[in-house]
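Tokens in:
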């Protein structure tokens, strides 16, 4: 996040806010009741989609390299798989 140009500070701030919101939502989901937990996890998936959108914009503006873009997308895909697994576990419980 340090190498973002000053002209793209809004994009950088959006990415940071979504990351902090995502982290907060995941922690909150651990302490909620089953139905609320599943809803919070779906909210997390929405935030990940928004993060993916912002990262895609960063790549299109050439703020991040292709290598970083691929690495970030791999991390996001892993997180999405984990959240879907968590949702599946909660529904079967």
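Residues out:
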């Amino acid at each position: 996040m340090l190498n973002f140009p000053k002209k793209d500070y809004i994009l950088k701030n959006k990415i940071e806010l979504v990351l902090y919101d995502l982290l907060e939502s995941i922690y909150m989901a651990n302490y909620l009741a089953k139905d609320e937990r599943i809803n919070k996890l779906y909210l997390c998936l929405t935030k990940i989609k928004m993060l993916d959108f912002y990262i895609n914009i960063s790549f299109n503006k050439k703020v991040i390299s292709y290598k970083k873009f691929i690495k970030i997308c791999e991390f996001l895909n892993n997180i999405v798989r984990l959240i879907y697994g968590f949702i599946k576990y909660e529904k079967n419980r």
